[in-house]
Amino acid sequence: MFTKGRHTAIASFMIIFAFLFIATACSTDQNGSDATAPSTETEQPAGSTTTNTPAPQMEEKIKFTYYVNEITYNIIKSGIQWPHIQEAAHAEVELVNAGDRGQYDQNLHLLMASGQLPDALWIKVALANQYGAEGALLDLKPLIDEHAPNMKAFIENDPGYRASVTADDGGIYSIMNMIAAIPNFAWYYREDWADDLGIAAPETLDQFTDMLRLVKANNPGGEKYFYPLTVQHYLHMRLAFYNVFDFAIYGNGVEDIYSPYFKQYVEYLRMLYEEELFDPEAAKGAISEDALKAKMLNNNAFIFFRATANAEDYTNTGKELNPAYRFTSMPPVIPVHGNDRSYWIAVDYSDSNAVAITKDAKDPVGIIKFFDFFFTQEGMDLMNWGVEGESYVIENGQKKFLVSSAEVQGGDPNSPDPHWMMLLQGSFTFPGPSDHVAWMALSSEFQQSLRSIFSDYASKNPQLLLVKGEDIDRRAELEAVVLPKRDKWIVDFVTGEKPMSEWDAFLDDMTASGFPEMIEILKRSLAN
Amino acid sequence: MRSRRRHVEQPLWRKMWKIRLLYLMVLPAVVYFLLFQYGPMYGILIAFQDYSPFRGISGSNWVGLKHFADLFGDAYFYKLLRNTLLLSLYTLVYGFPVPIIFALLLNEIRFSALKRWIQTLSFFPYFVSAAVSVGILYMLLSPQGGLINELLNVLFHMKPIFFLAEPGYFRSLYVTLDIWKSFGYGAIIYLAAMTSIDPHLYEAAEVDGAGRFRKMWSITLPGIGNTIIILFILSMGGFLTVSFETVLLMYNPSLYETADVIQTYTFRRAFPEQGFPNYSYATAVNLFQSVVALVLIVSANYISKRYSETHLF
Prior knowledge:
The structure holds two protein chains of two kinds.
Chain A: H1 4-25, E1 39-42, E2 62-68, H2 70-77, H3 82-89, E3 91-97, H4 101-114, E4 120-123, H5 125-134, H6 141-147, H7 149-157, H8 159-165, E5 175-178, E6 186-190, H9 191-197, H10 205-218, E7 229-230, H11 234-245, E8 249-250, E9 254-255, H12 260-274, H13 280-283, H14 289-297, E10 303-306, H15 308-318, E11 327-329, E12 349-357, H16 364-372, H17 377-384, E13 392-395, E14 398-401, H18 405-409, H19 436-442, H20 445-454, H21 470-495, H22 503-513, H23 515-525
Parallel strand pairs in A: 2-3, 2-4, 7-10
Antiparallel strand pairs in A: 1-3, 4-12, 5-12, 6-10, 6-11, 8-9, 13-14
Chain B: H1 12-18, H2 20-38, E1 49-50, H3 56-59, E2 61-62, H4 66-73, H5 75-95, H6 97-107, H7 112-123, H8 130-141, H9 147-156, H10 167-194, H11 199-207, H12 212-223, H13 225-236, H14 244-250, H15 256-259, H16 262-270, H17 279-307
Helix pairs in contact in B: 5-10, 6-10, 7-10, 8-14, 13-17, 16-17
């Protein structure tokens, strides 16, 4: 069948192919490490230039690998205060970039499956509790009690934080990062149009509705497609109106649909829709973030409910075409049932961002001491204010920033150039209390001016939701079915697809689907 | 008298040794399939466990058919199954013939440069990602300045239609998008099959007075009949599978009634925003889909074997 020549040719081909196959499978990058491994960078501490009181010197530097996502990696590695932090904490941290946020979670699970754990890693609290119970992560409680006095004092003085980080078995498997939950979510409307129409910020719901009607009738932008009120998500509508109509919400996603006040809220939205005051695309839940921005910039809407940064973004962009284009905010309208007026506010804790020490850590005591540093005054100042003399000064006993908000927010995390981005990214980098004063001071003047309008009305009872144990899975099971159904019913009521006379059928359907059980889980999970 | 040579059956190893180089050539492919296709099938076990990546397959608790019971015991599952089946059925009924028709028409183009251009252009949408294609769809169908609504307004004075918020339009839009993305790619296979048709048949048909469409119907179509049957059998394997990314990007609360399918529900259920991912549940759903696909392929192959000469195996 084969001639001798062909024999040789085929054999040669097979040998070459086998060689290529093996060479490809064992390929490495130029540095000789595994091409599939995340990139690493060891940061060398600079000479000490800090004027802060140094942390107690240890005999040897604390050295460990810290497994983080791409955002965290980029924010930290070129952060101007990073060498100062390592110097002050007497540490040498090897950052490991394990992918962007979406990829990071997958990589984390693969890491757990591989058994090759780094010393410390960035993780969600719920995952930390699960993996901790399985033995992948250390219980930090004994370490904190003995080696982290600052962290221990903070946890003991903050019951909400303590409850958040404590797992069902009583262990602490992660230390939660914190954000500065400043007043942020509010109504933002076109101030230039309001001035032209002589509109003052409405105080009551009726005034709010009349304002929308007036703007609709006048259509200041002259666009064919114009609906004054728009939002990106029904979640934002609930946050905007839960206090106005006084129906309970749990966390930020689930409301008490059985309350008659919730029905009143839906009827109100339906009225807005019928009068063409409520953007139909938003009413149907079919609007993206880009679409929302396009509507605001193209004069297709007048008012939206979201964050201050959005109002600033739209204003800055809109001004390029129309110098008069600007947004302002307003206090919350007076609730219809006599409760105190307030806007929703988040809690300071970020249970999606926490740090944990793995069972394979070579120096867990050193690592916990490093993280404890961020609970000292020096550590908090470095994280929230930066380096004295470089990013802030102290005048008359008060800290004052030398860097501007634009300078901080304009930093490019992908550039090797030093930046101050760590100042606003405590939740992404290291645990430690956030400084609300620093956060507010670092906001742009525009954001500060907007917040000054409504900051007094931030809710005094931000909700902390701690779903634990079997409730976690059961909640996920219920939410997968119940929330889409609820959304569909609400959309149908608001858009007129279903009459309000079917409200009881809606409640029955939700009850049959498990909504009451979901509410009970969330009520149990409320920590305060 | 002629002597009869007795046919001595050679041992198997001797036969294999004789063609050892052929076996050597196929060895890398066999190793690849063993390592990356058959080997990982061991992971199917996690469908019957409460799997944790840290504990691994051997260390995770065994729960038997719990996840399947959860799946089939959920009343909502049957609605998802209906949506998935309808979507797949529409894709099959409307999407399967399009590349065939396109290939047949393309084959009739005499100007070869034009034929190549059209084929190349038709192939481009295949490379467009789901995110981009859904984004294009949003722009085209936007009630606010979208091309389609503007045309409807200008030509028929119609008010804007929220195509992407009306449940009745979802399946049509999904199938249209799927056809747009895949018809060029699918036509390539049929065009390749057409090259194997004996050109003398066309000459003979020409002599008999057959027109272009007659030749297409009587020669070209039967000539690629085997390919059509094979691809149809293979397409049965994806009957319980839809393009997850496309659905996820297109659906919103207004569309859940028609757009919520098995995969999107499994994604919400198995990978919640908070909490631990439930790989076991996702694997159980996938296993169910795979078993159904296997049954459908075997059945389709059996029917094809019984009523035609063409079958996959």
